[in-house]
Amino acid sequence: MAYETILVEIEDGIAMLTLNRPAVLNALNDQVFSELAEAAAKIANDPSVRVIIITGGEKVFAAGADIGQMASATAVEVTISNRPSHRALQIIENMPQPVIAAIAGYALGGGCELTLVADVRIAADNAQFGLPEIKLGILPGAGGTQRLPRLIGAGRAKELIFSGDFIKAEEALRIGLVNKVVPADLLFSEAKKMAKRFADRGAVALRMAKSSVNEGLRMDLEAGLQYEHKCFSLLFATEDQKEGMKAFLEKRPAKFLGR
Ligand code: CO8
Membrane spanning segments where (predicted)? Predict the structure, then answer.
């Protein structure tokens, strides 16, 4: 399928999803969310893709949901039009492969919320984050009031949500909103370097590790530990586990086949 608002490139097992509405700073409308959902669902089922990078390109990640589309919406329309965004974010969050968000420039509102469904966030030193919805008389309704407190704690999340203020990349790093800040011109090479590091690991163990963390966060500790133990035990049925441990004992790099 040809997409109009996103670009999809797959190379060496790494899929790059790029938001592509530069004239409106990659504002996220229903079409973007629908195309993201479609592309992500396809990639999730593609065993040749080991890692996904989501970006908005070199200048901006995304300045939020499309205010033009939302401005005159009724509550009923929003209930319905919310579906593409929620569907897209849910699909991306549940992709079996690791997802890295590579963020340059503004990541605001729904743009910031999109970064929250990635597993890892790398920010360019020119990145700015914020949830300015409160200044529009709404709230961060694409997971911002739920995923952000789980990531950085309720106090810091509430400060961002209540003020609508923007924070710079270094502050985002300090509060744990991003994993890493890199010079802007190195953003994509650093994201690809990290993607390659993940891709070199055993694919089944990677998927199980992601599932163990994500599912565990939805459970209480006891249930999470049991889930982790099931994932751990299951990996002993893989060739990769045999190879990984054999390679260690033979003092050579492991060659994982993803099975
Ligand atoms: N929606 C639509 N258009 C936008 C958006 C947006 N979120 N952001 C920027 N644009 C457009 C501008 O209107 C402008 O268009 P034009 O050239 O035709 O006038 C163009 O992009 C460039 O923007 P600016 O001229 O404003 O650029 P500046 O560099 O001066 O300012 C800012 C950049 C600070 C990012 C500024 O554009 C801004 O404040 N944007 C809005 C940020 C915002 O409030 N985001 C939150 C939106 S609400 C939201 O995300 C809710 C998510 C939850 C709901 C999910 C369900 C759908």
Answer: none
Measured CA distances, 35 to 4, 38, 58 (Å)? 8, 5, 20
The verdict on whether 133 is a catalytic residue reads yes
pTM of the model: 0.96
User: How many domains in the chain?
Assistant: 2
Which residues is 53 bridged to in the sheet? 16, 100
pLDDT for 222 equals 98
Ligand 1 pocket by C-beta < 6 Å: which residues?
Answer: 24-25, 27, 63-68, 82, 85, 106, 108-110, 132-133, 136, 140-142
Output the CA 41–ligand 1 centroid distance in Å.
Answer: 27
CA dist., res. 218 & res. 165, Å (int): 29
Q: How far is the CA of 25 from the centre of ligand 1 (A)?
A: 7
In a domain, 254, yes or no: no
- Comparing CA positions, the residue from 169, 181, 244, 185 lying closest to residue 209 is 244
Say whether the ipTM exceeds 0.85. yes
Per-residue b or e along 108-123, where b marks 16 or more CB atoms closer than 10 Å to that residue's CB? bbbbbbbbbbbbbbbb
Asked whether residue 137 falls in the same domain as residue 209, the answer is: no
Closest CA to 105 of 160, 163, 151, 169: 169
Tell me, yes or no, whether 117 and 177 share the same domain. Answer: yes
Structural domain boundaries enclosing 193: 6-199
